[in-house]
């Protein structure tokens, strides 16, 4: 019986971290502005050693900062961040709104999109129509790198801590860099799929007030339920990591596991608009093309639903009423994630305080609203001087 259980856990391993991808990681780049744009040319990126956190160059000495930019189109900008928390040069993709510039007198609300496991920061633009969907939306869309199995966590590493410290990278380094140098405001929403779904709910729960909306599609929502620690550790081992490097031993380091369990922080999600979705059976559904072979990663759907029901019950206990769609048929795949994301999109726009398209009058209204809601950083966090952002004083 034990061998059967472990066999099922092995099949679910891919589901815990997401579907495989052939996407390549970004190398250091020199900035390239689209025609007609006057963008500052940053200094060439000096060579560094290999990052201990993954297949990226190691971080440069000093604080977190943007070291390179690459324009991929009129509104698509990749920035390369030297991150001491992950000890790596990490790419972040931005989709910029109409009228955006670094010199603008206003800021824009921000939508963070978190990728799944065994994938990278390009997945949202590679697999969905996010560029078209947000073309006329007055918000900055941010798609950060998170590692193939980073799990949106500051790793335990036998008590030594990071690198990698992915949570610090996303919720502090990237956030502050965008606020200081890229006109990001303080109205934020976050959404993710699979591993990124876990990250979205976790970040919203562990950082009260940071996000007004959290969307989670097919992710682990409660990490300490029976069987779930085994799945998570098997997933880490499948990517070549020490399975206990992430959060330690589930029993000996129960406090670390608890600190990374979104369900433990369910009460912190009061006041947050929430959308949770998942399949419940791993059976193919209406969005799976006929003849598509079944993949073990699709077991991620019943695993996700199992953990989602626990989180949903805790949310309702605290008076939180998430919008929930647990559908019977549907695989652990992009067509369902995109469908659910689009269904949640009106909630995202409402949370960000923006309209689907921005007339000049709408843009002015959004700008005034954003200025009215600016807040200083929490005590102990710098206003931006240490970041050494190229061009931040323009």
From TrEMBL:
The lineage of its organism: Bacteria, Bacillati, Actinomycetota, Actinomycetes, Streptosporangiales. InterPro entries: AB_hydrolase_fold (IPR029058), Esterase-like (IPR000801), Mycobacterial_A85_antigen (IPR050583). Residues 32-60, 353-394 are annotated as: Disordered. Keywords: Signal. Residues 1-26 form the signal peptide. One of its GO terms (molecular function) is acyltransferase activity, transferring groups other than amino-acyl groups. This is Acyl-CoA:diacylglycerol acyltransferase. It holds the Pfam family Esterase. PANTHER family: DIACYLGLYCEROL ACYLTRANSFERASE_MYCOLYLTRANSFERASE AG85A, ENTEROCHELIN ESTERASE-RELATED.
